[in-house]
Amino acid sequence: MLKVNIICVGKLKEACWREAVAEYAKRLGGYCNFSVEELAESRLPDDPSEGQISAALEKEAAAMEKFLSMKSALNIAMCIEGKMLGSVELSERIARAAVGGISTVNFYIGSSFGLSEEVKRRCGMKLSMSPMTFPHQLARVMLCEQVYRAFAISAGSRYHK
Asked: Which domains occur in the chain, in start order?
């Protein structure tokens, strides 16, 4: 069974977001081994310098290393400059990866300053949800829903209708 990880910086603070993620995790249990890995967010001052931001991104990238170095994994960076895919296209990409021998799909969501260039470079794919900006907590729920939808599409479920 395919393993799907959402590796994200920071914790969900509001109960409504945690409950939504938990609901999609429960639904995904029938399709894949799903987990959300929350990594520590670097503390920055209110008006950080470019150097402080860069150091924080590098620290967060180091925490992602164990996932980035997984063998037989498709790593997907969630970033504004990524490619936008429809739900069917995402479903097809995940299905192709699984058929092609990939055992794990890792999605990376950075902090409010994004992901380090190194993380984006090491990912086999960059994906954008929209040219619009969303709160990271909402983006995490949206990504969970889209992963669930991708598996439902592959299974021929009526959920996507």
From this structure: 3-160 (3.40.1280.10)
pLDDT tens across 33-83, in order?
999 999 999 999 999 999 999 999 999 999 999 999 999 999 999 999 999
Element (H, E) at 126: strand 125-127
Order of strands across the sheet that contains 73-83:
33-39, 3-9, 104-109, 73-83, 125-127
pTM of the model: 0.95
> Would you call 60 helix, strand, or coil by DSSP?
helix
Please report, as a single letter, which amino acid is at residue 42.
Answer: S
**119 phi/psi in degrees, rounded to 5:** -65, -45
Alpha helices in 29-86 (DSSP H): 50-68
